[in-house]
């Protein structure tokens, strides 16, 4: 519980009302007890502040009355307060910038927990989940208790389901506060381009900021690659301490461009001539040669996927930036495993291997298929679809990648959302080489059954697109669906039928 005075001390206030009366001096209300803050009117409780923020879909101001019914005693808003919008016994505060106000409220309410933590931010199209997960895991192995906020889940001694890769500043600060109370010393946060563009993390300052790469994704939102790049770049401009260290992977041209534009930060450049990793073997996990400046090290790991070598190198850059020694990092790497849904080996069945990967962009699918091609002894089969109501331009590109690298393709449904799954599949088909065998099975469960039943010894099956997700989104509703669980269920059924 905090007082109103403590919470609003840094706000740029334009005007305030108590009921229909203008408040000349909010100091008279500074001792009003506040139990919580929310942007969601349905989550508001007694003695809450409701932040009526305009989102991408709805304007929070249309939910003010619902918030008051649920117990809000203070309303924060950006628009002018009209006489017909006043409510007895309720304080309404008009602020200059609602996003800055929300950030200030959150940090004040939760006592600015970031000051007690090492904050590491990771952004990029592909690899940010693996890099974040690797960093969190290795820091814990090295004795620094580290939390995680990202695509897979939120981790604070317990696993909390993730609703967004990068939640709002209000949610982040509440999670960080809980971490400090439980003895955490660091936290890795995946920072999405949407969050950066929407200034969702306004107020956070990172100790290390990291860029993995950039390739086509989210153009339904950003419209073009330049806008997408500029959104990612904000992490390296607006969220730094004076001592912040930047780690930039040079694995593609956007990383090289970012390094050049940010050379005044003297960034750690990884996947470069100075720090790079070479794959020596991959049969039972990657065997790597890691070069750090003029020294070379050989490490055997439990990781799968050539692209994880690049992600591991980026992770290595983060730990070096934090001051860890090479030798202690390499020792911890030996026990590292792929994150859930990132080229995850789910099953060995009938002499074949079945992997699940989150690959939902052309580049990610290409990296996954290239990695598995070198492991196959027979055919490489891929099952995938594309998400509905998202960047339609990448669909034929993913079809083209699949037909150039896989031996067989099964097109199915991903998260169709409000689109017709067959229309999405038709878009993917436009990129498939006509000579490449493919089959259309719109029902994802049936597609998995078919592909598993027809596996031959030496085959590799890649189920791509959903990775860690435990649902399938269809017409506004999320239905329980896990690729991993379905695969194991089908294998159990097939084995029982063999007897």
Describe this structure in words.
The chain folds into three domains: 2-109, 3-Layer(aba) Sandwich (Udp-n-acetylmuramoylalanyl-d-glutamate--2,6- Diaminopimelate Ligase, Chain: A, domain 1); 113-333, UDP-N-acetylmuramoyl-L-alanine:D-glutamate ligase, CATH 3.40.1190; 344-498, Mur ligase, C-terminal domain (Protein-Tyrosine Phosphatase, Chain A, Alpha-Beta Complex), CATH 3.90.190. It is 32% helix and 25% strand. Helix 3 packs parallel to helix 5 (169-181). The mean pLDDT is 95.
Summary keywords:
499 residues; alpha/beta; Udp-n-acetylmuramoylalanyl-d-glutamate--2,6- Diaminopimelate Ligase, Chain: A, domain 1; UDP-N-acetylmuramoyl-L-alanine:D-glutamate ligase; Protein-Tyrosine Phosphatase, Chain A; 3 domains; 8-stranded mixed sheet; 6-stranded mixed sheet; 17 helices; 27 strands; 32% helix
């Amino acid at each position: 519980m905090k007082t109103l005075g403590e919470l609003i001390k840094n706000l740029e206030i334009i005007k305030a009302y108590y009921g229909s009366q203008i408040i000349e001096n909010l100091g008279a209300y500074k001792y009003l007890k506040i139990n919580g803050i929310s942007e969601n009117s349905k989550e508001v409780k007694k003695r809450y502040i409701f932040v009526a923020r305009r989102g991408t879909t709805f304007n929070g101001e249309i939910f003010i009355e619902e918030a008051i019914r649920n117990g809000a005693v203070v309303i924060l808003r950006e628009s002018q307060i009209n006489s017909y919008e006043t409510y007895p016994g309720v304080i309404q505060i008009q602020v200059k910038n609602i996003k800055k106000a929300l950030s200030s409220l959150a940090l004040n309410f939760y006592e600015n927990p970031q000051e007690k933590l090492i904050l590491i931010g990771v952004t990029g199209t592909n690899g940010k989940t693996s890099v974040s997960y690797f960093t969190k895991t290795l820091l814990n192995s090295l004795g620094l208790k580290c939390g995680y906020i990202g695509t897979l889940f939120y981790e604070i001694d317990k696993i909390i389901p993730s609703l967004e890769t990068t939640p709002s500043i209000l949610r982040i600060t509440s999670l960080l506060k809980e971490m400090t109370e439980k003895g955490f010393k660091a936290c890795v946060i995946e920072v999405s381009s949407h969050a950066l563009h929407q200034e969702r993390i306004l107020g956070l300052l990172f100790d290390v900021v990291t860029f993995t790469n950039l390739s086509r994704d989210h153009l339904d939102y950003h419209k073009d690659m330049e806008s997408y790049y500029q959104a990612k770049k904000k992490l390296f401009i607006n969220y730094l301490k004076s001592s912040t260290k930047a780690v930039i992977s040079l694995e593609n041209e956007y990383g090289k461009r970012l390094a050049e534009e940010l050379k005044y930060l003297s960034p750690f450049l990884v996947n470069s001539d100075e720090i790079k990793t070479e794959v020596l073997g991959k049969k039972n996990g990657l065997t790597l040669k890691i070069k750090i400046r003029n020294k070379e090290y050989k490490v055997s790991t439990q990781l799968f996927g050539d692209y994880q070598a690049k992600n591991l190198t980026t992770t290595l850059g983060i730990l070096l930036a934090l001051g860890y020694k090479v030798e202690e990092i390499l020792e911890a790497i030996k026990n590292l495993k792929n994150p859930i849904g990132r080229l995850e080996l789910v099953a060995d069945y009938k002499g074949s291997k079945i992997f699940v990967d989150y690959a939902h962009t052309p580049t990610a699918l290409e990296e996954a298929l290239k990695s598995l091609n070198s492991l196959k002894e027979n055919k490489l089969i891929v099952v995938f679809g594309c998400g509905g109501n998202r960047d339609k331009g990448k669909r034929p590109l993913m079809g083209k990648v699949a037909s150039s690298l896989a031996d067989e393709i099964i097109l199915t449904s991903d998260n169709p959302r409000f689109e017709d799954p067959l229309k999405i599949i038709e878009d993917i088909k436009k990129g498939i080489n006509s000579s490449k065998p493919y089959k259309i099975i719109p029902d994802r469960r049936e597609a998995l059954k078919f592909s598993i039943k027809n596996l031959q010894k030496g085959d590799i099956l890649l189920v791509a697109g959903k990775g860690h997700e435990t649902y399938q989104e269809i017409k506004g509703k999320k239905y329980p669906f896990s690729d991993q669980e379905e695969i194991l269920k089908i294998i159990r059924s097939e084995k029982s039928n063999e007897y």
